[in-house]
Amino acid sequence: MISILLATAGRHDRVLDLIGQVRATALGHDLEIVVALDGPEQEAQELRELGCVVDHQLERRGSAQAWNDALALSTGDPVVLAADDLEFRTGWLDAALETLAEFPDGWGLVGFNDGHWGEELSTHYLMSRRLITEVFGGVVSWGYEHSFTDREANERARRAGRYAWCKDAHVYHAHWLFGDRPQDATDTRLLDRHADAERRFSERQAAGFPNDFQAVIK
After folding, report:
1. pTM of the predicted structure, to 2 decimals
2. Residue 214 within any structural domain of the chain
3. pLDDT tens, residue by residue, 64-114
4. Considering the domain boundaries, does residue 141 fall inside one?
5. 217 found inside a domain
6. Dihedral, 25, 16, 66, 68 alpha carbons, nearest 10
């Protein structure tokens, strides 16, 4: 089983489309979609009716906490770090799994081709549970309020020799920064925290990315 960890808030229609995309583009694979939703109960119930595992909160907890909460409920291996502004294209999962199998013992992190950054930065990716426990300290995010979860994940995996980017794993990141869509309230809510997150990333990087968070999985 493959677990899709989806953090979302304020984009219910996009999430419904995304769930359909994931299932349509991963035919033949056993999927578990775990949604950490900050929003109304009605949205949570609709996601449950679609067969998703749902961790629901009314108040905004932020994506960092949401991804870890989704990880805690997941049972699959590998897991996918996903967001509500992605577009999954045909063949993405088969390509990513083929790349994953090329690692020694078949475990690591495989970055998706998001249409923007290339190998420089995998904004979303597929990870083995062994990578999460042995390299990431049992979590998939480290408390950044705005961005930098991906940068820490990428660098930690690279330092461990467990990073690969897959050109054919097309998971497009429809981001306002590249003019793909207008900014919305979810985008702008924490923009003023970006500089603090960047500073915190630099500090954690200099310290060797300490495992100073309680493990979600062991």
Report:
1. 0.92
2. no
3. 999 999 999 999 999 999 999 999 999 999 999 999 999 999 999 999 999
4. yes
5. no
6. -30
